[in-house]
Design goal:
- This protein is of the alpha/beta class.
- Strands 1-7-6-2-5-3-4 form a 7-stranded mixed sheet, sandwiched between helices.
- α1 runs antiparallel to α2, α1 crosses α4 and α2 crosses α3.
- It is globular and about 60 Å long.
- The protein starts with 5 loop residues before the first helix and ends with a helix.
């Protein structure tokens, strides 16, 4: 690429993006067909198999290479907690932990096509601006943990730039404390050969879903690193202290060489 003109580089970038978007569109259609036809005939384990394969396929279609670094073991009935960079975070986690049920903001449910698929994967939706709704979701999370399910949350509440974590909200962590479930921290980082925290993956400010999708599709050499960190005990902890401890562990992992 070094010897090519800026115009040619731009053309190649655009063609790469269009090719990847076509692959993503075809992959989404396959996912919709799977949800509509296959999911009703599968048990939870069978649906998780499809969720994992679909998530892996979405990352491949976008040209994102995922590496999973396992420093801890995810126990059943764990509350998974991770930093929030992009809408693509869920696919990264589901490629490694297809059993995870995410808590997501309510407007994701209204995203074209994707919202329906996310709901079919067992996502719990929350209207973050309503305190009473947070209590409802905490109750449902605690019930899911008691049933032995794995629940995943983004305690930042919104996406951040990646390097510096936003403050962690402690409300959703109460579900783990209520049933003494282990808390499983994950650290997710998107990067390239030139950027430790890739700008193409950032989904912040006024960025729309389509703009984010185009940035991802046109990115060159984008990789994702998911670190499964050692679990944190919750027994006897206070939720704000637990939130701060979890944030510190994830922040340190993101800055680790």
């Amino acid at each position: 690429m070094a010897g090519r003109s800026p115009g040619l580089r731009g053309l190649m970038r655009g063609l790469r993006g269009l090719w990847r978007l076509l692959r993503v569109a075809a992959h989404v259609l396959r996912g919709l067909l799977t949800v509509a036809v296959v999911f009703p005939r599968r048990d939870a384990v069978g649906r998780q198999w499809h969720i994992q394969r679909w998530s892996e396929g979405l990352l491949r279609a976008l040209g994102v290479r995922l590496s999973v670094i396992q420093e801890g073991t995810v126990a059943p009935a764990s509350l998974v907690v991770l930093n929030h960079v992009s809408w693509l975070d869920i696919a990264c986690v589901h490629a490694a932990l297809p059993q995870a049920r995410f808590v997501s903001k309510a407007d994701v449910r209204h995203w074209p096509l994707i919202g329906w698929m996310v709901a079919a994967a067992g996502t719990l939706f929350i209207e973050r601006e309503k305190k009473r709704d947070a209590l409802r979701v905490v109750h449902h999370c605690a019930e899911a943990l008691q049933r032995g399910e794995t629940v995943a949350v983004f305690p930042e509440g919104t996406t951040g730039p990646g390097a510096e974590l936003l403050p962690f909200h402690a409300n959703l962590l109460q579900s783990a404390l209520a049933v003494q479930a282990p808390l499983q921290p994950l650290a997710l980082r998107f990067f390239t050969a030139d950027e430790r925290f890739a700008q193409a993956a950032q989904f912040v400010g006024e960025t729309t879903l389509l703009q984010s999708l185009w940035r991802l599709a046109t990115a060159r050499g984008l990789q994702a690193e998911l670190r499964l960190l050692p679990a944190l005990p919750t027994e006897g902890m206070e939720r704000r202290a637990l939130a701060e401890a979890t944030r510190g562990v994830i922040q340190a992992a993101l800055l680790r060489p």
